[in-house]
């Protein structure tokens, strides 16, 4: 008797699905490829909206739920109550005829076998749009800044298709960062994907914060910051820095407000379960896509840290019963990375410029996690521990960092020639270091001595005081225009400043500051 109403209701609900999906698609006004994702997914799910299952097994972050009748579709969101808190589960697998295996977006402590779970009939949807600016959300779009509900009229599913090939934009232009080593040797493309590679403690987060300081503050559009599996303290510091800098606006009472704010923050930090860390980057991306596709903006999308996204995927992969691949990572590593990275792109409506910090386990760039992300990036900035040990910050490796836009057609012939001359000088110095270590400087030819002298000046001149590190260094931060950077390094390579001591080039902005510092040193001597 119980099955008859289910079968009669299902077609009616299925008929209603396209009608229900149409207004959602219209409201979201997505790019041509995206409405397909919105319309395609709800249709089969609508037939079982509201169906209730029961928990049959709980293993850490993975929860099995048994349903009678039809099962929820893959990637559907299920909801249950966990001691008064809403717990969202995302369907990952179908087991047999009546069980789904799901990944929990929050802690599963307190769940019991047999407790009811409701099918929402759609993917995880998060609030997007102007009302999210100045707010901190979690992976399922709930505010975690204790400032009340978001009240956004717009929501987007966290999974979507990448824009169609014909809708993508290919225009190449430089995104000026004000950081000498980046602008000169590995310039960033506007609307491109940028990776900051580095081991533990070499300065990835400080560099990403300086980029936010230099780009986001002067940037006309909005920024979205996704904190994926990093320290909660850093997220807290970043929020207060944004408040102090005016990137998050304040009302008459001094409280944060969406009006006038230019950044939305989405956090799933280290203490979150792997389900949240594996999906929080997608939640942030859903918001960035809204600003790109609906409002036609140029969006900055910061992710700290992409490695934690991969790490969270590997944590749940074993629990889902998948056989691990190389170094214990999930077998779907490339697929997971591709699904995220291909959505971060520029279209003819707007652009997403993405800056991603990528942790390198044990400083091994051949590890599958960082290696998989290389293929997706337009520019790579590699941080080197040996350079940080010399006290040179940012510890960017000038010979290991690359950029697709470092070509004469994009940056100009003078910039290109200067960058290559700087790299050539540094490479010669690197090849001479073994001889210097064994035999000493005296055994070098006069030409080689000059090369070493210039290379050491260049090495120190690539250092730069950061605005975000002022409180630690006591040196005021410097923003160097790209024209000044090219002019300064061209002069150093050509030997115009051979008479200045090496120490004059350390932790300064432009070449004028190096000359002034040399005069001070001479006076002090």
What does this structure look like?
There is one protein chain. The protein is α/β, with parallel strands linked by helices and 525 residues long. It folds into 3 domains: 3-124, Thrombin, subunit H (Beta Barrel); 127-159 and 173-406, P-loop containing nucleotide triphosphate hydrolases (Rossmann fold), CATH 3.40.50.300; 413-524, Bovine Mitochondrial F1-ATPase, ATP Synthase Beta Chain, Chain D, domain3 (Orthogonal Bundle), CATH 1.10.1140. It contains 17 helices and 18 strands. The chain has helices at 3-28, 33-40, 42-46, 180-185, 204-216, 232-245, 274-293, 306-319, 333-341, 368-374, 385-389, 408-411, 413-439, 446-461, 470-473, 482-493, 511-524, and strands at residues 52-59, 62-66, 77-82, 85-95, 99-104, 116-119, 125-128, 136-137, 154-157, 174-175, 188-189, 193-198, 223-228, 263-268, 298-304, 351-359, 379-382, 402-403. The chain has an 8-stranded mixed beta sheet, sandwiched between helices. A 6-stranded antiparallel barrel has the order 1-2-5-4-3-6. Strands 7-9 form a two-stranded antiparallel sheet. Strand 1 (52-59) and strand 2 form a beta hairpin. Helix 7 (274-293) crosses helix 8 (306-319). The longest helix has 27 residues, at 413-439. The radius of gyration is 26 Å and the shape is elongated. 47% of the residues are buried. The model is unreliable at 1-48 (pLDDT under 50). ATP binds at residues 198-205. This is ATP synthase subunit beta. It comes from Sphingobium boeckii. Keywords: ATP synthesis, ATP-binding, Cell membrane, CF(1), Hydrogen ion transport, Ion transport, Membrane, Nucleotide-binding, Translocase, Transport. Belongs to the ATPase alpha/beta chains family.
